[in-house]
Design goal:
The chain has 643 residues and is α+β, with helices and mostly antiparallel strands. Helix content is 29%, strand content 29%.
Length: 643
């Protein structure tokens, strides 16, 4: 049975979950329609999702169209949950991007489309809410071609748009559509050169080819609430999106893109299988599978290529883990490739405290939550508090509600702050010999060299010493401690794009223990990092902005005041187009200011993109917070923390 895995993506409130519900109803998968407002939809199953009326976690449902099985993945629409969308992109054969016929092309819609185009994910566009007052058709289609993709091709049209009587019918492809298809299709181009318009069958075949390649984007109009236009969309899924492929006889290969936890804490991992077969009792790099269920195939004994399997019995498995390699990943792959998607990491951090003072219970709950969403990272801070990295304030509210509802932990959050990073400036080296310490101190010898790494390389640990010079347990303890210590650099921010090389090592076979290396490594590392010096960088957003021409000077002044680097890419009598970058900490202020400056006519799009230098710390300068660089102070620090 052929299978296609599709994702439903949209800006929040465009009607994505309602469309998912309608697709399940129209294909006979469910007997009655659920409601987002009533909290009765199939895919928003969590209590928090039902209460808030938004999708927070990726959910999977299945339906059949003739002999085609469709696995439908409903993703969050709010930009605060972009990590969930990122993971969905890694398992899709195609996508449906939902727009509102009333609100039109919105900021997050543009962000999603930009990613879908870059990854060449075959995508259908569904313009929802054609029955609402204020709905548009021709004008919106022009906006789609201008703001999303020039490859948009309308395959349906609306009668009575903007009224309760709105109806949708298929539309034939015309000369303008043929000209768009001819850009990438030699057969269509040859026909036009011969002054012949290809017939409907030829154009539809060309549309299917170019949709699969990510060149063309069919546009369907309809309403998820009334159901008009949904049958045409289902036909498009069947005819235009490519089916899943894979080799059942090859080595097992698949990606974990979501995890659910039962009431007893047991994990269920959602795996998109690309090659090979998975069965109950199979041994994997993560343990032995004790239970397996194939989405859309109740009672199936095995999962095959293209299937999405719910796998149980692997307690250590995390989102982003990949079957077939045994390797864990920080993020799931992009569409069809199992490589990382281009979404920036969270740029906000908040400190969390337990209202009852139970730090251990709070941190354990946060670690478990981060297990399900690796891009929400949590770490213990000096003093015993915990911090969480976030994409936005809505996400912080959801974390707080989840802690209370699921884990029974009432948490207090400090105001969010921007997350900066540090990079080493030069080379620093430092070492300590255990023979220089009284026997009551560390029975370990360690020396590290710190050097700048390549941009985007993260944290790298290397050895110049012989691997056999230390027992493996001491090597492991040292490397783990070094990587953990780099979470807080000279100015208290995580250090990245850094190479730490062990240049000296030694131990006493009688008295040394792994704890000696764990305790000494932070001190030696911070001394080496102090010698190297660091620079602090702040996260930035790239932005695009269209404003009426008469408001351009005032908007430009506001952007400069927000420390933006701005270029005017196009100007004219009607509008200005501006683009550039600005610090992430000023984005919300700009967004709040624009409506008043532009009479509400600004079109703004921003997304996390890179960083910029804030300040440098001269090499050799002592730090004043976090891990001490004075040995006596450091020993007092260890005693205080009871390490």
């Amino acid at each position: 049975m052929p299978t296609v895995n599709i994702g439903i993506l949209a800006h929040v409130d465009a009607g994505k979950t309602s469309l998912t519900e309608r697709l399940l109803f129209e294909t006979g998968t469910i007997g009655r329609l659920g409601s987002v407002d009533a909290g009765t939809t199939q895919t928003d199953r969590g209590e928090l999702e039902r209460r808030r009326g938004i999708t927070i976690k990726t959910a999977v449902a299945a339906f059949s169209v003739g002999d085609l099985r469709v696995n439908l993945i409903d993703t969050p629409g709010h930009s605060d949950f972009v990590a969930e969308v990122e993971r969905a992109l890694g398992v899709l054969d195609g996508a449906v991007l939902v727009l509102s016929a009333v609100e039109g092309v919105q900021a997050h819609t543009r962000r999603l489309m930009k990613t879908l185009r870059r990854l060449r994910v075959p995508t259908l566009l569904f313009v929802n809410k054609v029955d609402r007052v204020g709905a548009r058709q021709d004008g919106l289609l022009a906006d789609v071609r201008r703001l999303l993709t020039p490859g948009a091709i309308a395959v349906s049209e609306v009668e009575g748009v903007g009224t309760k009587a709105a109806r949708v019918r298929p539309s034939d492809l015309d000369l303008s559509d043929a000209e768009r298809l001819a850009e990438y299709d030699e057969a269509v181009l040859a026909a036009l050169v011969e002054d012949r318009l290809p017939d409907e069958g030829e154009l539809r075949a060309a549309l299917a080819r170019q949709t699969a390649l990510g060149h063309a984007y069919p546009v369907y109009f309809g309403s998820a609430i009334t159901g008009v236009g949904v049958a045409e969309l289902v036909g498009g899924v069947r005819e235009l999106l490519p089916h899943a492929a894979g080799d059942a006889g090859a080595e097992t290969r698949g990606t974990v893109f979501a995890i659910e936890r039962g009431r007893a804490g047991d994990k269920t991992a959602y795996v998109r299988l690309r090659d090979g077969v998975l069965r109950t009792r199979d041994r994997t790099g993560f343990g032995t599978i004790t239970g397996l269920e194939v989405v859309g195939l109740p009672g199936a004994a095995e999962a095959r290529p293209g299937d999405i399997a719910k796998v149980r019995g692997l307690p250590g498995i995390r989102v982003g883990d990949r079957f077939g390699t045994g390797e864990a990943a920080d993020t799931a792959g992009t569409a069809g490739t199992d490589t990382a998607a281009d979404f920036a990491r969270p740029s906000l951090e908040t400190v969390v405290r337990a209202a009852d003072g139970d730090r251990t219970r709070l941190h354990a709950a946060l670690v478990e939550m981060a297990d399900q969403d690796p891009l929400i990272r949590t770490r213990a801070l000096p003093g015993g508090e915990s911090s969480v990295l976030l994409y936005g304030e809505v996400q912080k509210e959801v974390v707080a509600a989840t802690l209370a509802d699921v884990y029974g932990v009432e948490a207090v959050f400090e105001p969010s702050r921007t997350v900066y990073i540090e990079r080493p400036v030069g080379v620093g080296e430092y070492g300590e010999n255990m023979n220089h310490f009284p026997s009551t101190r560390f029975r370990a010898t360690l020396g590290f060299r710190v050097t700048p790494g390549a941009p985007g390389s993260g944290r790298v640990f290397r050895y110049e010493t012989e691997l056999g010079a230390l027992p493996p347990v001491y090597h492991r303890a040292t490397e783990e401690t070094v990587l953990r210590t780099l979470e807080q650099g000279l100015d208290g921010w995580a250090v990245t794009d850094v190479v730490v090389t062990m240049v000296r090592s030694g131990f006493c076979s009688v008295t040394s223990v792994a704890g000696d290396f764990r305790k000494l490594a932070p001190y030696v590392l911070m001394r080496a990092l102090t010698e190297a010096g660091t620079e602090v960088y702040e996260p930035c957003h790239a932005f695009e902005l269209d404003v009426p021409a008469d408001t351009g000077p005032a908007v430009l002044s506001a952007l400069v005041a927000a420390q933006a680097e701005v270029e005017v890419s196009a100007g004219g009598s009607q509008s200005w187009s501006l683009h550039g970058n600005l610090p992430a900490r000023t984005v919300q202020d700009v967004e709040k200011t624009l409506p008043a400056l532009t009479r509400g006519e600004a079109v703004w799009l921003s997304q996390a993109a890179g960083d910029r230098l804030v300040r440098s710390r001269p090499a050799g300068r002592e730090r004043t917070d976090g891990n001490p660089t004075d040995l006596d102070e450091y020993l007092r620090y260890l005693a205080l923390e009871k390490m």
